[in-house]
Write a structure and sequence with these properties.
The chain has 22 helices and ten strands. By secondary structure, the protein is of the alpha/beta class.
Length: 634
């Protein structure tokens, strides 16, 4: 039992260590709910004291005559006796003046008023927790999203989308439930327990000491139920992530699934994971459900034991309490059991929440190797390229294993076009990803106008570069907003009109204006999820229009026409040629016909530049480029 309680305390400390910075943002709400709950506990104790004269009137358990004793007589040690005597005295006086029935009604009204104060302060304490609870969950989601968009691409190559979505949704909801329970545990329940136990000591220290000796029985029963809950919760969230990942894969590959008649195979995969999740979730739910009946039974056992001991004290005359006080004591004791049970439930919730928070923290604590320089250097002209991009002895490895690029030396002069060709896996895309610092070089350096890209601020570096990729990535928004994606948000009607004119001009240059105007709502037409309402060529032309609007001095084209039909390729190629005018361009191509006019063509093989020159020079060289060219002509 001691080991389990220590483990729970360690987990609670760990949970609040992780959550501490979030709680600190809402200190005034914590102070407010603390005050309200103290008042609620005090009003609750005082409301119970009204039961004493009510019991005397109803059951006539005490026919003794009482005289008023001045308050403070006998000091603090006799305060409880003086309070009890004077309470009986006042009720005795009321009965003599108004009669038992009226006195009972008046005492009932006082009880109702005190209960109103108790419930009002209790509600106030709970209401003050709501901005704290909802605010912390909002902050966690915002931090996760902020971290996701700041992490490098390499992080997501090792993580599944479904797993990340589960952490943002289900795991955050588990943390929400844990916060709700943990706030009760830290703020409300301890206050109520301290006030109630203090009152019990005040009534009878002998009886309270005996009661506290029985409490470990309750703790042992609750601790036995909570074993392994965190580990199973982690496993449950992992299985849920697996099922979410499979759903995400199914949505992305539905066309292939249907084409290969693989519905039954995919269904079998999903059913297996879904059943595993259900089995683990059932075990966790059963263990949680056992908490209430176990604590209820053990609480009743404790009441029975205390009832026996209290009766023995009364019969023997050793406890200094009478039947009325003992009944009041039992009411306080039974009321104390509820916050104790809530405390145990909070322990389970914290264990589940800690499991979820550890999964969330894997994202929040992920190290970003792409660091902003402490003192960024400014380029001679921050808006343009003045000289050249140079790669000097560049090597790169994704992990500490085999290098992907080896000793790359390349110069791209201002206004020139350099093309990269080679087999799939030769390192072309990795090479161009190093320029905007999606990854950092393992050795060597990349400079723009003589300045190492690692010494430039990331925003200033990437503002120089425009990308058009093989897969045109569009967002579920209007055509206008997709083209204007990188533009500053307009703040005045004039700025909005100017932006619309620039978007239309960019679309015309990209050969996109005609089909946009033919669509249902023109530039305000929604493109659907990832641009699914448009053809491949239309998506690519919108992507080119987006790059044109950005007007970058450096352009990276990553197989921008490889996935298009002949007609779409012609339209896109025309748009690209307009985009490439007066810009420094690095183009990756599989179709050699699209880069024949490049100023220099570099052939990559297994991470090395093995040939370089113009199209004619490489054909004359009769090497790897000539083989690629002959294969495409054939």
């Amino acid at each position: 039992m001691g080991r389990d309680s220590r483990r729970l305390r360690t987990q609670v400390r760990q949970f609040f260590h992780i959550m501490g910075p979030y709680f600190m943002n809402y200190k005034k709400y914590i102070a407010g709910t603390l005050l309200m709950n103290i008042m609620a506990a005090i009003f609750n104790v005082f409301s119970f004291t009204i039961l004493l004269p009510i019991l005397q009137i109803l059951f006539k358990v005490n026919a003794e005559h009482f005289d008023f004793i001045p308050w403070g007589t006998g000091g603090l040690s006799n305060l409880i006796d003086v309070a009890k005597n004077n309470g009986y005295y006042y009720s005795q006086e009321m009965i003599e003046h108004y009669g038992p029935a009226t006195t009972l009604l008046l005492l009932g009204l006082i009880l109702a008023f005190l209960t109103l104060l108790k419930t009002a302060t209790y509600f106030g304490g709970s209401a003050m927790l709501m901005p704290l609870r909802t605010g912390i969950i909002r902050d966690i989601r915002a931090d996760i999203y902020r971290k996701i968009i700041s992490l490098p691409l390499s992080f997501f190559s090792e993580e599944r989308k479904g797993d990340i979505l589960t952490r943002v949704s289900t795991d955050v909801n588990e943390v929400d439930a844990s916060i709700n329970s943990s706030l009760d545990m830290v703020i409300k329940n301890p206050i109520f327990i301290i006030v109630y136990v203090g009152t019990m000591f005040f009534i009878s220290w002998q009886l309270t000491l005996f009661t506290l000796l029985v409490v470990p029985l309750l703790a042992w029963g609750i601790g036995s139920v909570g074993k392994k809950l965190k580990a199973r919760s982690l496993l449950m969230q992992s299985r849920l992530s697996d099922s979410m990942s499979q759903i995400e894969e199914t949505l992305g590959g539905l066309r292939i699934i249907k084409a290969f008649i693989a519905e039954k195979k995919m269904m079998a995969r999903f059913v297996k994971v879904n059943n595993e999740y259900r089995d683990i979730a059932s075990r966790v739910a059963i263990r949680q459900s056992a908490a209430h009946p176990v604590s209820e039974f053990l609480g009743t056992v404790m009441i029975v034991i205390v009832l026996w001991f209290g009766g023995w004290l009364i019969f023997s005359g050793k406890g200094g309490i009478d039947a009325n006080i003992f009944i009041y004591y039992l009411v306080i004791l039974y009321t104390t059991l509820q916050p104790l049970k809530d405390l145990s439930k909070a322990g389970y919730a914290i264990q589940k929440g800690l499991a979820s928070m550890e999964r969330i923290n894997k994202i929040l604590s992920a190290e970003n190797p792409i660091k902003e320089p402490a003192a960024p250097i400014q380029l001679p002209d921050p808006q343009t390229l003045s000289d050249a991009i140079r790669l000097e002895h560049v090597a790169f490895a994704y992990t500490e294993g085999r290098e992907v690029l080896h000793d790359i030396n390349l110069e791209v002069k201002k206004g020139k076009t350099v093309a990269l060709v080679g087999q799939s896996g030769s390192g072309k895309s990795t090479l161009v990803d190093l320029i905007p610092r999606y990854h950092d070089v393992s050795s060597g350096c990349i400079t723009i106008d003589g300045v190492d890209v690692r010494q430039l601020s990331i925003s200033s570096l990437r503002s120089l570069i425009g990308n058009v990729n093989q897969e045109a990535i569009l967002f579920n928004d209007t055509i206008f907003n997709n083209i204007a994606f990188g533009a500053p948000q307009p703040t005045t009607p004039q700025e909005e009109n100017d932006l619309r004119e620039r978007v239309i001009e960019a679309a015309k240059i990209a050969n996109a204006h005609a089909f946009i105007m033919e669509s249902e709502h023109g530039y305000d037409t929604n493109v659907g999820d990832r641009g699914c309402k448009l053809s491949g060529g239309q998506r690519q032309r919108i992507s080119i229009a987006r790059a044109i609007l950005k007007n970058p001095p450096i352009l990276i084209l990553d197989e921008a026409t490889s996935a298009l039909d002949t007609e779409s390729e012609r339209l896109v190629q025309e748009a690209l040629e307009r985009l490439m005018k007066s810009r420094t361009t690095i183009a990756i191509a599989h179709r050699l016909s699209t880069i024949k006019n490049a100023d220099e063509i570099c052939v990559l093989h297994e991470g090395r530049i093995v040939e370089r020159g113009t199209h004619e020079e490489l054909i004359a060289l009769n090497g790897m480029y000539r083989k690629l060219n002959d294969m495409q002509q054939l």
